[in-house]
UniProtKB/TrEMBL annotation:
Protein name listed in UniProt: Protoheme IX farnesyltransferase
Organism: Bradyrhizobium retamae
A Pfam family that the UniProt record links to this protein: UbiA
Topology within the bilayer: Multi-pass membrane protein
Gene Ontology cellular component annotations, sorted alphabetically: plasma membrane
Length: 303
């Protein structure tokens, strides 16, 4: 349903704020934070200016991916109340303007990262944008309920890009950071979409709650949360983070599993457990990566 405000705003000229909105700034801020953690915990001392340049390039790449996602998804965004106010369905930015903006920003971000840092990081950034826009948005999102499990790989890559930008190489540590975000994405998103199943049905998007129902979604949320809680201990278990991180990961993981079990037990009339899990999922990732940043073991001195 369209709000009065969106009707009033329809057709007004685009502002800088509309272009900022195309980059999905709130979601991308956490994406960029995880990239920063990947960059900072990597071995060696990266030059602060090079580090800042890398983060700016990753932020621009993530923003480009958000704009290209909104370009392609403008039709379904127009149908859902949560997204109907976005710049394209709101009539303030045209689809072709969003496409040009997204492509330009993306190309500049990749070229700058390749020039200022290294080619491997630039190739990974290009691959991540491609994966989110083409594999998730254009291919999987409208076709399979496993869309966000597979597509979630794109959201899990930024800390790996950060690490590769700093070192020019991969490693077991960035792989673990990737796995943490990969396993975190299903509980994060399915918790939100449980309460929005009606909207996704109307938009024709086969999200898991639409296709498999509440009980099965709750079961899978719980399963992913248990794996997440276990895998999040690996940085401590393998010695690249200290005991403070280990304790924080255990506590945060236990809360995640507890809230997921409440969602698993909830019925259609109870909206609060899923809302609480969604909100906590964001805090979880901020705190887990924040503590990792402060408690990472210096690379050359394993525990
Ligand atoms: C395929 C993977 C993902 C999907 C489908 C997904 C989906 C969503 C959706 C639909 C929202 C609702 C709010 C909005 O429209 O802004 C949201 C919020 C959010 N997501 Fe995700 N997300 C994914 C991965 C991620 C990743 C990887 C991160 C960061 C590491 C992230 C961080 C956030 C944050 C911070 C919010 C709250 C934004 C706000 O305050 O409005 N998400 N996500
Ligand atoms: C560096 C780089 C390229 C990072 C990209 C990171 C990435 C893939 C983040 C995904 C987060 C996100 C907003 C998913 C939204 O799904 P959706 O598009 O289905 O949600 P919507 O309905 O809100 O549009």
């Amino acid at each position: 349903m369209q709000t009065n405000r969106s009707i009033l705003l329809r057709g007004r000229y685009a502002t800088v704020g509309d272009y900022v909105a195309l980059t999905k700034p709130r979601v991308m801020s956490l994406v960029v934070f995880t990239a920063l953690v990947g960059l900072m915990v990597a071995p060696g001392d990266i030059d602060p200016f090079a580090g800042m340049a890398a983060i700016l390039c990753i932020a621009a790449g993530a923003g480009a991916a958000g704009a290209l996602n909104m370009w392609y998804d403008a039709d379904i965004d127009a149908v859902m109340a949560r997204t109907a106010m976005r710049p394209i369905p709101g009539g303030r930015v045209s689809r072709s303007e969003a496409l040009v903006f997204g492509l330009t920003l993306g190309v500049c971000a990749v070229l700058a990262l390749g020039t200022l840092l290294n080619l491997a990081a630039a190739a990974l950034l290009a691959f991540t944008i491609f994966f989110y826009v083409v594999v998730y948005t254009m291919w999987l999102k409208r076709r399979t309920p496993q869309n966000i499990v597979i597509g979630g790989a794109a959201g899990a890559l930024p800390p790996v890009i950060g690490w590769v930008a700093a070192t020019g190489n991969g490693g077991i540590e960035p792989l673990i950071l990737f796995l943490i975000i990969f396993l975190w994405t299903p509980p994060h998103f399915w918790a939100l979409s449980l309460n929005l199943a009606g909207e996704y049905t109307r938009a024709g998007v086969p999200m898991l709650p639409v296709v498999a129902g509440r009980a099965e979604t709750g079961r899978q949320i719980l399963l992913y949360s248990v794996f997440l809680a276990l895998i999040s201990l690996l940085p401590w278990a393998l010695g690249f983070a200290g005991a403070i991180y280990g304790a924080a990961a255990a506590i945060l993981g236990a809360i995640m599993v507890f809230l997921s079990s409440q969602v698993h037990r909830s019925d259609d009339k109870q909206r609060r457990p899923a809302r609480r899990l969604f909100a906590f999922s964001i805090l979880y990732l901020v705190l887990l990566f924040g503590v990792l940043l402060m408690n990472a073991t210096p690379y050359a001195q394993p525990r």
